[in-house]
Specification:
Low-confidence stretches: none
CATH architecture of the largest domain: 3-Layer(aba) Sandwich
Number of domains: 2
Number of strands: 14
Helix content: 40-55%
CATH topology of the largest domain: Rossmann fold
Strand order of the largest sheet: 5-4-3-6-2-1-7
Number of helices: 16
Mean pLDDT: 91
Oligomer: single chain
Radius of gyration: 22 Å
Length: 366
Amino acid sequence: MASTLFGTGAEIGVTRGFAEFHAGRPVIINSAGETILALPVEGLNAARWSEFIALCTPVAPRLALTARRAGALGFNTAAAMSLRLSRRCDADMVLAFVAGARSARAIHMQPAGAAAAAAIQLAKLSQGMPAVLAADAVSDAIARGHHIVSVDAESIAQFRAESIRSLTIASKASVPLKGGKRATFVVFRNNTGENPAAIIIGKPDFQKPVAVRLHSACLTGDVFGSRRCDCGEQLQLSLDRLEKCGGGIVLYLPQEGRGLGLANKMRTYQLQDEGLDTIDANTTLGFDEDERDYGAAARMLELLDCKSVILMTNNPAKVAGLASCGIEIAPRMPIQAPINVDNRRYLTAKAVRAGHRLNEALLSGS
């Protein structure tokens, strides 16, 4: 039963589990006929590995990986997989299987099960590495003694939708921007404490289609001017265009690195430096090509009473994502940022492999 003070039971459990994974603590995951103790691999070191092994004794933990990561290791599967760990295994070996090794055909893997798959999803929600150590749950006495939080697998699957429904407007204020632009910042809050924001330029007429840019946060590009991507340039182009066309909205979404989070984004950069493109780097780490969801953006527009948009994007997934949530898409407005020697390979991969509608002549340098 839902409570205005506590939320639903499912929401309480996942929120607490989310916080435990953020802190690097183990969580009990319950699924139909299965209960496991799961520890996020993010932050694993020798001391944490030893303590977790001792906590699980006499049960040996397994390493649960996404289907994408198993695929990168050479296994053809559509389900999360698990690897039984030997007594010789240590923290460094676990981390190598999660992010270092490119192939491992000699090992044996088996389906991870619903509870472990849910634990991986919880790790993703906490923006950690998409893998967990999993073992048959410890005794009730040990669980109570360590105050281990218990979460239902089904609740984790429903959590993203609940997070979108929980969005509310938290605050708003007028903010003068560089170049003389004036903006109204409308800040939202959801049940995980995230604060997506709508930056409203000018005075758009919400009775007509409004120019809108969905912009995923990019610390490296937006703040520090990184040349590895075109994010900072696209953001500035969007603001300039909105001012010239009489107003509109930038939805600034906390989806760094296509939803992977900043730490994982840096891990994909390391893989790109080793020769992978941006998409293969994501999937080698065990993520989908793009982990973003635009349901929150649609909800933000609804709360602003904006029902029809002229979407400023080259990404067809953004168009489809908003449309599937009931937002009417008026003509798409392309937004081509400058291409340089450092981001050409990145932008080419987005165009060729993800269908982004970019100028082929500019990409080829002709």
